[in-house]
């Protein structure tokens, strides 16, 4: 079996990579285990030195890495450069803060000395998606390695070049050979990795279905897992919102990465009194986006990453229209090569339509009109997902109360679009996942909180 890299802009094959054989896979995990046994005892300052070197290497290789993403999954070059910079940031953040985050926590008891010590648990198996092929990996790997763990990666099969490039960053930064390893393997082989006695935990970013399958496999072996899954983020536009700022934030979030993001704005819950004006401005803003070859400067949207993903998205749009949604923009597959899909806006979306309940993984915005704030909150929470949400209002105190107390999601923003940040925990509730990445919370997910009691 092989992994094929296909250019989604042209449909042409870029490269072919062989999958690991069963003996090669076993040897790889054994080698990573040996690397971990030494790494867990490496002083924190030395780990930080290597992690800062990784950040430097990322910045030195920003152009070839951005081009690699553009070729393998269609990300516009400017966005690829931004992704690499964010990876460098997360490396530097954990290099600076991990020692403080993992410092012993003294607890007063009857003992002479008692405290919580944080210690690494071993090899983490990461199953990662193609949409942010560098960032998704580094946001797991930076805290994992700084915390003394090791990592093996099964990346999405359409970005094998990115997967191998990430391994090269850690190798060239001086990390022990095998401590972070890319495994070019199939889905059935992933089960072998999860079941392996040397693998301590699993982290996955992907679909809800994939998350449930991994959770079953890991749970059967009592192995912890962090799952960052799908989302259908609602953005509430209240009557007093600054519409220019709201439209810009909403369009930016919906179009980022050609709409292929779990935390993109997807459902726009708009109070009826500003609905007509919001639609007018929002459609105009979406229509200004430039779609084309991601290797060309100034392009806002590249192609969808695969033909099947574009076809699924178009089917969702057509089924929503058939159920009564009104098309304001786009909705037509363009002629010519590549897996392109234009910026699309649907309105009059109601319960029972795919646009109301399904995740749209592409540049399609779904507008749901509501009567008032109370109805907006109810509609926002009327979903099986719970990853991110945002509210736009001039009443910042009201917006904060809605974000903190009313919206059912893991990340709630006021007058800004939802994004991940190394300084803050990231993850969802309901069918958007379990556990957290980033911040101190993400670091501690894969640490043994060990009680030490001395009399």
Characterize the structure shown.
The radius of gyration is 23 Å and the shape is globular. The N and C termini lie far apart (58 Å). 42% of the residues lie in helices and 20% in strands. It has a 7-stranded mixed beta sheet with strand order 12-13-14-11-10-15-16, with helices on both faces. It has a 6-stranded mixed beta sheet with strand order 7-6-5-8-9-17, sandwiched between helices. It is built from 15 helices and 18 strands. The protein has helices at residues 22-39, 44-60, 62-73, 77-101, 135-146, 160-172, 187-195, 208-219, 243-255, 272-287, 307-322, 354-357, 373-381, 396-406, 439-444, and strands spanning 2-6, 13-18, 105-106, 113-120, 123-127, 150-154, 180-182, 199-205, 225-228, 233-237, 265-271, 326-329, 344-347, 364-370, 388-392, 411-414, 433-434, 447-454. The chain folds into 2 domains: 2-229 and 430-454, Aldehyde Dehydrogenase, Chain A, domain 1 (3-Layer(aba) Sandwich), CATH 3.40.605.10; 233-414, Aldehyde Dehydrogenase, Chain A, domain 2 (3-Layer(aba) Sandwich), CATH 3.40.309.10.
What is the makeup of the main sheet?
7 strands, mixed
C-alpha end-to-end distance: 58 Å
Can you tell me the CATH class of the largest domain? Alpha Beta
Give the tally of structural domains.
Answer: 2
Helix content estimate:
40-55%
Give the count of helical stretches: 15
- Record field, number of beta strands: 18
Rounded to the nearest angstrom, the radius of gyration is 23 Å
Determine the structural class based on helices, strands and strand pairing: alpha/beta
General form? globular
CATH superfamily of the largest domain: Aldehyde Dehydrogenase, Chain A, domain 1
Strand order of the largest sheet: 12-13-14-11-10-15-16
**What is the arithmetic mean of pLDDT?**
97
**CATH topology type of the largest domain:** Aldehyde Dehydrogenase, Chain A, domain 1
- Which regions contain 5 or more consecutive residues with pLDDT less than 50? none
Architecture per CATH nomenclature, i.e. the level-2 architecture of the largest domain: 3-Layer(aba) Sandwich
* Portion in beta strands: 15-25%
